[in-house]
Amino acid sequence: MTAPLKLSRFYEWGRKIVAVGRNYRAHCAELGNPVPKEPVLFLKPTTSYLPEGKGPTRGPPGCTDLHHEIELGVVISGGGTNIPQESAMDHVGGYVLALDMTARDYQNIAKEKGIPWTWAKCFDTACPISEFVPKEKVSDPQDLNMWLKVNGEVRQKTNTNDMIFTVPYIISYISKMMTLEPGDLILTGTPMGVAGVQPNDQLEAEIEGVVAMKFTVGDKL
């Protein structure tokens, strides 16, 4: 008999990472993007997962401008399609702190050409994650203080109440276009302060009172 899958190890068996772009107004402004009227979505492959303690995060070959983006990650426990916003949180099993590592030079080239951001977001080690946090340990995902430091200097700091689109709204919105499945991870967007990192930089991030993590930046893949 096959043992049941552990949601805490979703990164080993979950099927997709759905990411939300431009979900904080100040971040939209710092990159010169308009504030969206509905969520901007893109996908990352599960091969981009990098659990804490499993090595450094690395930029793709040729990347000269690797950026950090701290995000609240929402782990889906109960799948569904056309999930009502009012019951969306019933489909959440827990959370992680995550980094959406981005090859900004690749992304800028893609934006100029009007083509997808795939190479900028989907390389191996592009999604560092913390340990899993059960849903019961987070009373309100829209009231979390989180920050990221590089070599001890604060680069990003926010409260999740600054999101343009809330977690229930995002879950409902995504499920209208694609079926959400147990083990899926939703990245809910990054606040302002994204910036470049170099090999050997030390990244520290925390959701205050909930979970923290540390990663080192390595050489390119």
Automatic annotation (TrEMBL):
Asked if GTP-binding is a keyword of the record, the answer is no
E.C. number: 3.7.1.5, 4.1.1.112, 5.3.2.2
Instruction: Give me the gene this protein comes from.
Output: LOC118412944
Catalyzed chemical reaction(s)? oxaloacetate = enol-oxaloacetate; a 3-acylpyruvate + H2O = a carboxylate + pyruvate + H(+); acetylpyruvate + H2O = acetate + pyruvate + H(+); oxaloacetate + H(+) = pyruvate + CO2
Provenance organism: Branchiostoma floridae (Florida lancelet)
Q: Which UniProt keywords apply?
A: Metal-binding
Enumerate the spans annotated as Fumarylacetoacetase-like C-terminal domain: 16-217
**Which GO terms fall under biological process for this protein?**
carboxylic acid metabolic process
Alphabetically, the GO molecular function entries are: acetylpyruvate hydrolase activity; acylpyruvate hydrolase activity; metal ion binding; oxaloacetate decarboxylase activity; oxaloacetate tautomerase activity
What this protein is called in its record is Oxaloacetate tautomerase FAHD1, mitochondrial
In terms of Pfam families, this protein maps to:
FAA_hydrolase
Say yes or no: keyword Metal-binding present: yes
The family annotation for this protein states:
Belongs to the FAH family.
GO cellular component terms, semicolon-separated: mitochondrion
